[in-house]
Amino acid sequence: MKSQLAFKAPNIKPSDYVLIIVGSFLQALSYVLFLAPYKIVPGGVYGISIVLHYSTKGLIPLLPEGLPIGATALCFNIPLMFLAMKKIGLASGPKTVLTFVLISLFTDSLSYILGEGTLVENDPFIACFYGGMILGMGVTCIFKAQSTSAGTDVLARVLANNSNLRVSDMIIAIDSTVVLIGLIAFQDWAVPLYSWFTIFVFGKIVEMLQTENPSRAVFIVSRKTNEMKDILVNKLGMRGTFLHGKGMYAGEEKEIIFTIAERKDLPRLKNEIKEVDPDAFVSTMHASKDSPLPGR
Prior knowledge:
Elements: H1 14-35, H2 44-55, H3 69-87, H4 93-114, H5 124-144, H6 152-160, H7 167-186, H8 190-209, E1 215-221, H9 225-235, E2 240-246, E3 253-262, H10 266-276, E4 281-286
Antiparallel strand pairs: 1-3, 1-4, 2-3
């Protein structure tokens, strides 16, 4: 069996570098200027890092101001990245590494330069609105470069893998848990309110700016339908439907697998299919109107 820990040679276009740099900077700007100063916990790795930053103030002699947010997030992201490569593979690995390293560097650099001040004085509601908006803009840039910032969505995919749980449900559960950790740590009931509002704004901005549908309809024609089903259900945590067809030339009966996949998951899906059946035919198209698949 081939090791899933091996990276493929990165193929990053110059425009992807620009998008990753801009997106990483915007995310860091959101954390430093709007969210962290008000102890807003936007879920994910950086939500945990903000909690640890404030909880460790004065506890570590070498770091009297608390654990650096960016470096702490990096310490979480590195093992999560290895976990992802081992358990589910990661086609965008090099881009993802570049992304979460840049976010960490930008976050701690901006914190050092700007301190813990905020652009919005005495108004956490406005701060979480702007923070969520800028965070959403940054994440959209990252998505357009076909990258991710790793984080807890990786953990959600691993937990959802080989189960009937949806990745989206796991992300909501994990992010909500992080928000509740912030409530316990800061003993402030305003924390979950502002944090969930930030997550809501962030999600709406990503939805608005992603003009292309994030999902693709995928049709797979292969003689090894059982193996393809195993890849989709047990390895990728996806669902699909068998369609019955007949070849026009030879009149041979065929089973066609139909499924919906996110764009960022397509490279890995195609690689897995070709590894099992090099002769498989794969066709994709825009999923203009998505709804849950049968059996999902």
